[in-house]
Every structure is written in structure tokens, then in C-alpha cells.
């Protein structure tokens, strides 16, 4: 149980990341990802990268610039403008997607943004490599330091279903209502390079 702990990514590198050692049992028709990050980066960086054999951005959560997040599904992205962070504050985000409509939902600090859509009818493979803090340009590889995350990350969850606003709020407080594929209270991971777990 990693509650009360954060993963610290202390510097820009192309070889430091967290490998999540869990994947969905079945291909995904729906998914949700939540995490909290704390950084002063203003350049683009990758928070969550889910790469499959066919598609290196089958699921990804990217911050291309301050005030914007991008959610990738099957290699296609939708952008969500968000309020500029107050310096010295962490930001909790959740993204959901459903194949039947292609609708992508996005929440920042528990507040829903207007929904968007992409990849209606798509299926996300479950044969994936999941990495935090780097963008995979191939499965667990081809990392670019200029896309790496530096800062702190915690409260990482993934589900094979959608979330309601109530589910998002419960995830923010590390007490999810739905059982995740993996989550911060039972987080199967390995660190590579310089990433540290700290209280």
C-alpha cells in the first residue's frame, strides 16, 4: 500500500521510469486512468504511456504545455484545456474512454471538463507495456529525455470501465469505489534508473 508515498523523478533523463507490472486480462472497450502529479515543468512531458505491439500510444496521458492535457487512444489524441496550475500545487487528473461512443471524459482536481470524442468502435489491446514518466516510442524503449517527467507522482489507478464524478472524487482520496486493474493501494511496479519512492 503506497498511500502517503510519492514517486520522485528527480531529473530529466531518457532511462528513468516506472514500469507498471500489471495489465488488463482482456482487451479494453472502456478504460479510466487517474493520477496526481506535482512539477514545475513547462516543456512537454509524458505521465502515463500504455504501448502495445501495434500502437505505441494505445493509451497515453501527455502534458504538451502548461494549461493543456492530451489523452491518446489508439494513437489519436484529444486535447483538454485546463486552468493554469498555481505553482506549488499538485494536480489530480482522470481520463476515461468508451469504445461504444468514442467519448473521452476528463477531470482536473475533481472538476469535469467538456467531453470530447475519438476512436469510436476501437479496441485497446491488453498485451501492453505500461510506463510512468516517459513516452514509449516503441514498447519499453526509444525514450526521449525532452519528453521525460520530472517531479512527483502518486495515486495512480487504472480501470477497465468508465468513472462517474463520484468515482473520480473517491480516487482522489485513495478510496476507489470500483476495483481497479491496479491502484496505489496495491501498486505492482519496478523503478528503472533514478526514480525514488518517498513518504
Task: Report on the architecture of this protein.
- The chain is mostly beta strands and 199 residues long.
- Strands 1, 3, 8, 9, 10, 11, 13 and 15 form an eight-stranded antiparallel sheet that branches.
- The relative contact order is 0.32.
- The protein has a single domain (6-193), classed as Sandwich (Jelly Rolls).
- The longest helix has 8 residues, at 165-172.
- The chain is globular and about 40 Å long.
- It contains one helix and 15 strands.
- Homopentamer. Pentaxin (or pentraxin) have a discoid arrangement of 5 non-covalently bound subunits.
- Its main location: secreted.
- Its cofactor is Ca(2+).
- InterPro entries: ConA-like_dom_sf, Pentaxin_CS, Pentraxin_domain, PTX_dom.
- Residues 3-199 form the Pentraxin (PTX) domain.
Chain-averaged pLDDT: 95
CATH architecture: Sandwich
What fraction of the residues are assigned to beta strands by DSSP?
Answer: 35-45%
- Alpha-beta classification: mainly beta
Number of strands: 15
Give the oligomer, counting copies of the same chain as homo and different chains as hetero: single chain
Number of helices: 1
User: Would you list the SSEs in sequence order as H and E?
Assistant: EEEEEEEEEEEEEHEE
Question: What top-tier CATH class fits best?
Answer: Mainly Beta
The total domain count is: 1
Uncertain runs are none
For the sheet with most strands, the description reads: 8 strands, antiparallel
Shape: globular
Distance from N terminus to C terminus (CA atoms, Å) equals 12 Å
What is the name of the CATH topology? Jelly Rolls
* Cα-atom radius of gyration: 15 Å
Helix content: under 10%
Amino acid at each position: 500500500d503506497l498511500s502517503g508515498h510519492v514517486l520522485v523523478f528527480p531529473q530529466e533523463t531518457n532511462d528513468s521510469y516506472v514500469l507498471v507490472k500489471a495489465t488488463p486480462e482482456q482487451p479494453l472497450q472502456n478504460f479510466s486512468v487517474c493520477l496526481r502529479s506535482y512539477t514545475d515543468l513547462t516543456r512537454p512531458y509524458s505521465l502515463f504511456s500504455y504501448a502495445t505491439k501495434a500502437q505505441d500510444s494505445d493509451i497515453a496521458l501527455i502534458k504538451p504545455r502548461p494549461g493543456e492535457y492530451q489523452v491518446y487512444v489508439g494513437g489519436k489524441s484529444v486535447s483538454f484545456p485546463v486552468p493554469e496550475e498555481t505553482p506549488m500545487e499538485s494536480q489530480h487528473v482522470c481520463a476515461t474512454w468508451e469504445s461504444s461512443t468514442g467519448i473521452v471524459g476528463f477531470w482536473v482536481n475533481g472538476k469535469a471538463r467538456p467531453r470530447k470524442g475519438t476512436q469510436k468502435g476501437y479496441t485497446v489491446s491488453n498485451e501492453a507495456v505500461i510506463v510512468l514518466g516517459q513516452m514509449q516510442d516503441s514498447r519499453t524503449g526509444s525514450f526521449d529525455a525532452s519528453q521525460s517527467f520530472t517531479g512527483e507522482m502518486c495515486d495512480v489507478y487504472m480501470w477497465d470501465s468508465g468513472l462517474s464524478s463520484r468515482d473520480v472524487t473517491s480516487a482522489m482520496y485513495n478510496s476507489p469505489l470500483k476495483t481497479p486493474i491496479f491502484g496505489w493501494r496495491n501498486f505492482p511496479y519496478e523503478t528503472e534508473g533514478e526514480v525514488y519512492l518517498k513518504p
